[in-house]
């Protein structure tokens, strides 16, 4: 899940407490998502128990103590594992895909191409379904047709972008 990846990457950048992790993720992706405590703190506990991060108590005068999280070597390995663990189910979710693309510099060329190919195949299937729906829609249903046309345009645009990423990945640009 991409939230696990985002949490670990924030901690990898520098040790942070929970609120800082949340704010940094929202600063980077605020328009895409909101990180709530029900996602963040269970993940931090899980990563601590797995040894991916360590938790250090930070005493503060006149305020409650904070816990600061630091990445471990196991956590760095977990980041690579999570980036590469891209499934057909993940290919259906734009944010899962976009997060992986933003981290392509961390993975092999073969895995980049695998991820791009999976997303492209999913989009091609989606496009065929939308076009079939558009062919069967009633001509007087103007707004439905507008939505379908806009969706087709977005999907076709993303397929073109993926084709360009594939070309750049193969050529080594």
UniProtKB/TrEMBL annotation:
One family name in Pfam for this protein: PadR
Occurrences of domain Transcription regulator PadR N-terminal (ranges): 7-81
Protein name: PadR family transcriptional regulator
């Amino acid at each position: 899940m991409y939230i696990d990846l985002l949490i670990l990457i924030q901690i990898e950048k520098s040790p942070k407490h929970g609120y800082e992790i949340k704010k940094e993720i929202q600063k980077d992706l605020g328009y895409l998502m909101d990180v709530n405590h029900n996602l963040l703190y269970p993940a931090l506990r899980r990563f601590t128990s797995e040894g991916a991060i360590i938790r250090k108590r930070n005493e503060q005068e006149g305020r409650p103590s904070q816990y600061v999280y630091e990445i471990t070597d196991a956590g760095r390995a977990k980041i690579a594992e999570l980036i590469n663990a891209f499934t057909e189910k993940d290919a259906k979710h734009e944010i899962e895909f976009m997060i992986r693309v933003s981290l392509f510099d961390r993975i092999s060329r073969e895995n980049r191409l695998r991820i791009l190919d999976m997303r492209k195949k999913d989009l091609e299937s989606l496009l065929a379904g939308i076009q079939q729906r558009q062919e069967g829609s009633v001509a007087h249903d103007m707004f439905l047709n507008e939505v379908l046309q806009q969706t087709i345009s977005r999907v076709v645009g993303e397929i073109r972008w993926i084709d360009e990423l594939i070309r750049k990945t193969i050529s080594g640009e």
